[in-house]
Amino acid sequence: MYNTEIINNLKYRLQDILTDKKVETDVDILDKYSCDETSDLRFMPDLLVRAESVEDVRNTLKICNELNVSVTPRGAGTGVTGGSVPVSGGVILSTEKMNRILEIDRDNMIAVVEPGVITFDLQQKALHEGLMYPPDPASLETCSIGGNVAENAGGPKAVKYGITKDYILGLEIVLADGTVVNTGGRTVKNVTGYNLTGIILGSEGTLAVITKIYLRLIPSPAASRDILIPFNSIERAVEAVTSILKHRIIPATIEFMEKDAIDLVSKHMDGTIPYADAGAHLLIQVDGQSDDEVYSLINRISVAVDIVQEKILVADSISQSNRIWKARRSIREAIVKTSPIFLAEDCVVPRAVIHFFLKSLKEFFILKGLYSVMFGHAGDGNVHIDVLKKDMEYSEWKKLLPDLKKQIYRRAIDLGGTITGEHGVGYLRKDYLTMALSAEEIALQQRIKKAFDPKSILNPGKIFPFSSEA
Amino acid sequence: MYNTEIINNLKYRLQDILTDKKVETDVDILDKYSCDETSDLRFMPDLLVRAESVEDVRNTLKICNELNVSVTPRGAGTGVTGGSVPVSGGVILSTEKMNRILEIDRDNMIAVVEPGVITFDLQQKALHEGLMYPPDPASLETCSIGGNVAENAGGPKAVKYGITKDYILGLEIVLADGTVVNTGGRTVKNVTGYNLTGIILGSEGTLAVITKIYLRLIPSPAASRDILIPFNSIERAVEAVTSILKHRIIPATIEFMEKDAIDLVSKHMDGTIPYADAGAHLLIQVDGQSDDEVYSLINRISVAVDIVQEKILVADSISQSNRIWKARRSIREAIVKTSPIFLAEDCVVPRAVIHFFLKSLKEFFILKGLYSVMFGHAGDGNVHIDVLKKDMEYSEWKKLLPDLKKQIYRRAIDLGGTITGEHGVGYLRKDYLTMALSAEEIALQQRIKKAFDPKSILNPGKIFPFSSEA
């Protein structure tokens, strides 16, 4: 997208200040940074910078801003909406090498980390101190905490513990022109000036590059237990969720799988999935400070779902817990195996109407002859809707997608929900933002974008349906 | 501050569109809107608008923006930093009449309310449905939820339940030019575009006027119990807090009072305060879903604080709970009675260093011959520091204040904290913002201000040490 002269000039200037080893131009390596985990999306960057410090980030941004070259920040590249894909070429600015856990302060229950830390590593290190960092996106073991902040990542544990934004106390960020800004700090309460941490959360790398993160930790639960409950139908499963919460029980997770998801995984797992013939599954984890507390919760859940309950499988060993979770965790694998190209949506609706949403979608998909699989977070209304291309012609599939997305988003919005609960808008959904937000709302967001990045060099082509120069 | 011609023109235009009864010009009534609960601060508005709908807010802002007249939004006027005091005159825009609870959705555990709803009323209505809205600022029974959002209000329950921002899912706001904007919505997860809800939280009426609020509720605890623990010193009390949390116990509140606070309240309450001779008190509330759970927590707290504990008073009736809380709740009353003019600061520091902060301050105050009282939220590091004028000459007091504030803020910042934990910057602290934030950080915040309110008509003279035109 940029001419050779600009890129060469940029390369020399970056190499000069960052040293050669941090500035990558090898095409084979650049190719690895041309995509994230989004199905069927690839754009080549012109250069890759692997920053090792805030100074590296600062220098890279300063030079790129001066030369008007776009910068796409990248954590671990596990996003699924093209957020870290360089759709306008330019520089990929990776924070993967900034991966130190700088501090775990046990007394104040705070962690200070660099953005490239793998979320799972932070969790393990915290656990070692008796502490917990709860947010648990599916990509936990490979995603980075910086990416989690940029996407305001969710996960199954949102029902009890909330999402990324509930744990971020402060940030060090670098603006497009290289200015280093600190937001928030080491305390839970802080109302000194605007809540800039709040606006960075979920801004998908379009406002600033995150270089340091202050996180709140909580005491880890001493006991937990997983249970699987089969239901005849998704309606019954959703009713059970409402009933559990009405009984003042908040499990750590309440995941669901509808019939087609169960069937697909059952096939994939050669029939070893429990209750393979059920119409829906709820996969519930309860936790607490003692086994007694956990068992009392399980008993109370049994009472709460009694009217619809047929069986409950309570895992009483780690291997049984793994067996219970394996089905839920294998869904994507089963989908990719069945159809490498698929549409993955993650709409959110108020929790008590999930079944209306699913039924309406399923009817529509069947009418169109499409095969779909739905699963996700029943506790917070966040539904994963995967539609599989299977053996449809690629051109026909591509032609179908815009209307397919619109039909899905329209139903979510009509039920009081929105188009994305945890994956973000990124590149994939930007043309549909107008379905969820008014022109005035988008204009306000673009004015905020300008306040951070007046030349629009940071992650262009994401979130907004039209250029922020508009 | 405005000439009569402008104000008359404004008055006629507002009366014309809003009807006379919503536009107030009576000086005696305006006088009541010239202050909030800040000690020693008063500025007269030129006009008062009592909005009854989003349309009223929209029309008021549109006209004021056109005529360049400043608008100070006001909830219940219970702030303590002059946030709702019209320091540049102009219009006070009160949302006190927009006080309807529009919806409590029990199944989805969501409330939809207008900004003028009194926080306590919302809590009671939620409780009636078995649900809880946890944030509990001291002014709970008189403050409004709109003001809580504007200030991102805290309270004792922050240690377990978090603060206002942790419960706000979405907002309807009106920008300075009258544009209505919706942020977030009815779901816990929502990453569709920027987190505008996040930036409005704590923006102190400088970015937009809040006209509707979507809140997350949680199941209410079925049981709770209050306990009072006396300590020889504040160090021992802070050590006990660290120990409790390290034992994986998170009480609903952990409040503290240091010796001078205990002494003052003891005098005020004629010696009826328990453990009046202690060096410090911790006032702890534990809650849970059963009496058993609550008693088990109390037992675990006893174990956790064993090494320093002398006595524990466990309230076993509501009247005893009230007795325990009365001392903590009477502090301000005792202060005002002793000295109607006083400095009230609410710095925040990492929880484990509260005692360093207090000791350093106390030494400084004593050196200066000042009488101070300190108390607050030991669970989250938010310390209330009240310095009493007593019989000092008013002019001497006024001369003393700037250095006094600087000395307090400097110590909080040096310990890794900040200048305000829950009260906000408002008018009182704006000249000290540069102690906590860099020039670049303030400039960024002012660019954000401009994105919302290009003519700077909304609550001018607040937060920023210099005009946002700078």
Characteristic key phrases:
homodimer; 470 residues; alpha+beta; Uridine Diphospho-n-acetylenolpyruvylglucosamine Reductase, domain 2; Uridine Diphospho-n-acetylenolpyruvylglucosamine Reductase, domain 3; Alpha-Beta Plaits; 4 domains; five-stranded antiparallel β-sheet; 16 helices
Describe the structure.
The structure is a homodimer of 470-residue chains. Chain A is an alpha+beta fold and 470 residues long. Chain A folds into four domains: 4-96, Uridine Diphospho-n-acetylenolpyruvylglucosamine Reductase, domain 2 (2-Layer Sandwich), CATH 3.30.43.10; 101-219, 2-Layer Sandwich (Uridine Diphospho-n-acetylenolpyruvylglucosamine Reductase, domain 3); 223-331, 2-Layer Sandwich (Alpha-Beta Plaits), CATH 3.30.70.2190; 339-431, 2-Layer Sandwich (Alpha-Beta Plaits). Helix content of chain A is 36%, strand content 19%. Chain A has helices at residues 4-18, 27-32, 54-67, 119-128, 145-151, 158-161, 196-200, 234-246, 259-268, 291-304, 318-329, 331-338, 354-367, 394-414, 433-436, 439-452, and strands at residues 23-24, 47-50, 71-74, 91-94, 101-105, 110-113, 131-132, 168-174, 180-184, 209-216, 218-219, 223-231, 253-258, 280-288, 313-314, 342-345, 371-377, 382-388. In chain A, strands 15-12-14-13-17-18-16 form a seven-stranded antiparallel beta sheet, with helices on both faces. In chain A, helix 1 (4-18) runs antiparallel to helix 3 and helix 13 runs antiparallel to helix 14. The first copy, chain A, starts with a helix and ends in an 18-residue tail after the last helix. At the A-B interface, strand 9, helix 7, strand 11, helix 8 and helix 16 of A face strand 9, helix 7, strand 11, helix 8 and helix 16 of B.
